[in-house]
Design a protein that fits this description.
By secondary structure, chain A is of the alpha/beta class. Chain A has 6 helices and 16 strands. Chain A has a single domain, classed as Rossmann fold (3-Layer(aba) Sandwich). In chain A, strand 6, helix 2 and strand 7 form a beta-alpha-beta unit. In chain B, the strands form 4 sheets. A 7-stranded parallel beta sheet of chain B has the order 7-11-6-1-4-5-12, sandwiched between helices. The chains are: A alpha/beta, B alpha/beta. The complex binds flavin-adenine dinucleotide.
């Protein structure tokens, strides 16, 4: 089984309140912030590893390819995913401002045509743009089934299909997709029992969250293959379908008062805020 | 001429209020570009929803009825909507940014070779172009975007558009012929739907939201959050940590990657106020925080804070609120 996991680098998600807008309002700067793999993509890497690397033995049942479309520096985040245990990397060079979800999906389609994976397993959204579109666009382009918001994935041991529990409004919808397919993951996919390939014995449950890169993992990652392309090499049509005109700062909320008693709180809510 | 198409959000037999918000957006766009909107709904049997849909001021209500459409599979819905958009030469297609909207519309946009703006919060019109304002970076920045393609696809954030009020005049209703399922449907099967149970209002619709975090320590303890919400006729919310720990169903997660709420009153209990959580509730009118740690970031966005053990403060609050009733 071959899995492609697309991965975008994003400014440190826990500090995005420090992202700045240039004075002309045309650019965003994340100067001073570390770059990290988009957390949802890191979760997708974890889910892919749980699917094909965790068989309860040393046997691996598939290959995990991490593909990023971004600047040269994104190599670091790809290597990070290789250190987690992915097999190889692909970097398609492109500047953030030349990319939108449709350009990224077109680039991924070219990689799919080159690699013929069984599954494209991706994050449901990148936490910089927060668009939540690329997986669905890619699935539409390929004519493949899509299972978005995956909180659980179960495959039979022959890995021919996946039963996906989707976290949607009002509850959980379960669908079964036959490969090849696109699955986009939600946060719960990294809870201990979220991925079941019917190979891991129940006593070998995963830990909560994405795995850390071990020291040997980091050493090994340096030697893992990494292909480089430009958008041009791949013949990607780079016409954007969304144009960003400007950025602005939403109104900020400021802290209020700390009250001593619950009685005072109720009084203020009634008389001052008038919400009771 | 109707040049805007609203895709209705229906769940469990109800037309969701988010549909009315999308209609408000559509009527605003109509006044900018000159034109009107129609509303499209897809489902197994829409007779129960037609009365609601036909009173939303639309040029037409377009119904697609076929067995299995309630499952809202993107693979099944997209070619049906695509056909309506092409035939009707619609210029703007909009749906609420519900999970269905988020799932279906990007795939639809691809079929239409259209650009798409997600989670739109405001729209304006300048020099012949629609400008959409949308959140990025967990709501820490807004961007203004334009869509240069022939058709423009958007999902809208319910809390930013007041729901359209029903009108007396009824729109004509048309039933379309549903094209047969596309080939890709052989590769996806809908198994089942497990409904999260709540008698309270939907999170985005609620006037009061009481949310609990990891500080609640167990699902059992979450009952005090429910009791407090109940008093206000409000909804219960939760942090990712509370959901991950199994205290409550994932449907109740508020935040960047959960539900977006903007009630009159938001009470945050035993949650720290991580930016991913704040992204989902910072547009609330009044925010109250109860947390035992005075350094918790939630106090930086709260209008009123109580630094106390929640297991003492919440029962007290319940008693005080009861006295007012
Ligand atoms: C990709 C990604 C997406 C995410 N999306 C979301 C999202 O949509 N929504 C979301 O909520 N989070 C989200 N998160 C998680 C977020 O970063 C935080 O981890 C989470 O919100 C923390 O939950 P919490 O506040 O309940 O827990 P904690 O941060 O552990 O806070 C618990 C709080 O409870 C207080 N407390 C403990 N006991 C008591 C007591 N007895 N009385 C009073 N106070 C008490 C503590 O002082 C503490 O402040 C996301 C994270 C990632 C990486």
């Amino acid at each position: 089984m071959k899995i492609i996991v697309p991965m975008k680098r994003v400014p440190d998600p826990d500090n995005v309140d420090k992202v700045k807008i240039s004075s002309d309002g045309k650019r965003v700067s994340s100067e001073g912030l570390d770059w990290k793999p988009n957390p949802f993509d890191e979760y997708a890497v974890e889910a892919a590893l749980r699917l094909v690397k965790d068989s309860g033995t040393d046997k691996t049942t598939g290959e995990v390819i991490v593909a990023s479309i971004g600047p040269e520096e994104a190599t670091h985040q790809v290597r990070w995913c290789l250190a987690m245990g992915a097999d190889r990397g692909i970097l398609v060079l492109g500047d953030d401002h030349e990319l939108d979800a449709s350009v990224v999906a077109r680039a991924l389609k070219k990689l799919v045509e080159k690699e013929s994976p069984d599954l494209v397993l991706m994050g449901k959204q990148a936490v910089d743009g927060d668009s939540n579109q690329t997986a669905q666009i890619l699935a539409g382009m390929l004519g493949w089934p899509q299972a978005t918001f995956a909180g659980r994935i179960e495959t039979p041991a022959d890995l021919s299909r996946a039963t996906v529990t989707r976290e949607v409004d009002g509850g959980c919808a379960t669908v079964t997709v036959k490969f090849p397919a696109v699955i986009s993951v939600d946060v719960r996919i990294v809870t201990p029992q979220a991925v079941n390939n019917n190979m891991i014995p129940p006593d070998k449950l995963n830990r909560d969250g994405p795995r850390y890169a071990s020291l040997t993992g980091i050493m090994k990652a340096k030697k893992k293959p990494m292909d480089r392309y430009t958008l041009e090499d791949l013949g990607v049509d780079t016409t954007q379908r969304v144009k960003t005109i400007s950025f602005s700062q939403p109104p900020a909320r400021s802290g209020g008062v700390i009250l001593d008693t619950v009685g005072e709180l109720v009084q203020r809510l009634k008389e001052e805020a008038r919400v009771l | 001429m109707d040049n805007i198409l609203v895709i209705a959000q229906i769940f469990d037999g109800q037309v969701k209020k988010s549909t009315n918000s999308a209609v408000t957006f559509a009527s605003r766009v109509g006044s900018f570009i000159g034109g009107s909107y129609s509303i499209m709904a897809l489902g197994d049997d829409l007779s129960g929803q037609t009365p609601h849909l036909s009173r939303l001021g639309a040029q037409r209500v377009i119904l697609a009825e076929a067995p299995g459409l309630d499952q809202a599979l993107a693979e099944r819905w997209v070619p049906i909507i695509e056909q309506v958009v092409r035939k009707g030469s619609y210029k703007v297609v909009v749906s609420p940014s519900s999970s269905t909207g988020k799932d279906v519309l990007p795939r639809l946009a691809q079929h239409l070779e259209a650009g798409m703006a997600s989670d739109v919060m405001d729209v304006s019109y300048e020099g012949d172009k629609l400008n959409y304002v949308r959140p990025m970076y967990a709501g820490n920045l807004n961007s203004t975007v334009q869509i240069p393609t022939e058709v423009e696809v958007v999902t809208v954030r319910q809390t930013e558009f007041d729901p359209f009020e029903a009108v007396a005049q009824e729109s004509p209703v048309e039933m379309i012929e549903v094209p047969p399922p596309p080939e890709v449907l052989e590769r996806i099967e809908f198994n089942d739907f497990e409904k999260s149970i709540s008698e309270r209002p939907d999170l985005p619709d609620a006037q009061v939201v009481v949310s609990g975090g990891r500080g609640l320590k167990s699902g059992e303890n979450f009952k005090i959050i429910e009791e407090l919400a109940e008093l206000f006729g409000g909804a219960v919310g939760a942090t990712r940590a509370a959901v991950d720990a199994g205290f409550i169903h994932n449907d109740f997660q508020v935040g960047q990657t959960g539900k977006i709420v903007a009630p009159e009153l938001y009470i945050a209990v035993g949650l720290s106020g991580a930016l991913q959580h704040v992204a989902g509730m910072k547009s609330s009118k009044v925010i109250v925080a109860i947390n035992k740690d005075e350094e918790a970031p939630i106090f930086q966005v709260a209008d009123y804070g109580i630094v106390a053990d929640l297991f003492k403060a919440v029962p007290e609050l319940i008693e005080e609120v009861k006295k007012l009733m």
